[in-house]
Amino acid sequence: MEHTALILIALTLFLLVIIIGLLTALVFKLFRQTPSTDGPPPSLKASSPEEGTKGEFHPAILERMKELEKIKPRRAELFCPNHREEPGEVTCSICDGLFCKACIRPFKTMHFCKEHLPLVMRHDWDEVLTIKTSTSDPENGVRLFDVKKALFRDKDIPTYVETHYKINVDHDYIETYLVLFAVRESVDELRRELKSFNF
Ligand SMILES: [Zn+2]
Ligand SMILES: [Zn+2]
Predict the structure, then answer these.
(1) Which ligand sits closest to the CA of 115?
(2) 3-class secondary structure, 158
């Protein structure tokens, strides 16, 4: 009886020694591996430094960084082009530039910058196009504003868009009409351009 107990104790001790030995070996191995799991081996990093640094970011973070890089140059456009310290507050209806209150004047239902207010006042402006938009289908209106901007930027044709509202009494909702105006002399040219934009 005493003999069996002694053998059991010896066996338990033996097992304990083996377990402690294995654990020590495992911990030692883990500690040695930690530095190499941090990143690719130095030789790989050196051969492609760009990939090495970018590879450390999650793809979603990289995507966000790309978006931020796109936004960065637009920051300057948030300030008045004539007063770099003044935030732009109102958009000119001709050039779509953002100006501070000192640089823009109200006229009719819109605002125009100092450069374009004389243009608006000196010429006769004709209606060229009227489109109906609704909150449920704003797509056409958005497209008209895009085309208007492109015509000014690429073709040097100044236009402005007036918004007219009509209350539909029967159906109890407000209809919105966007009316595109152009200088009388440029109306024919503008109509041709609008056709190429499918308006
Ligand atoms: Zn302007
Ligand atoms: Zn200004």
Answers:
(1) 1
(2) coil
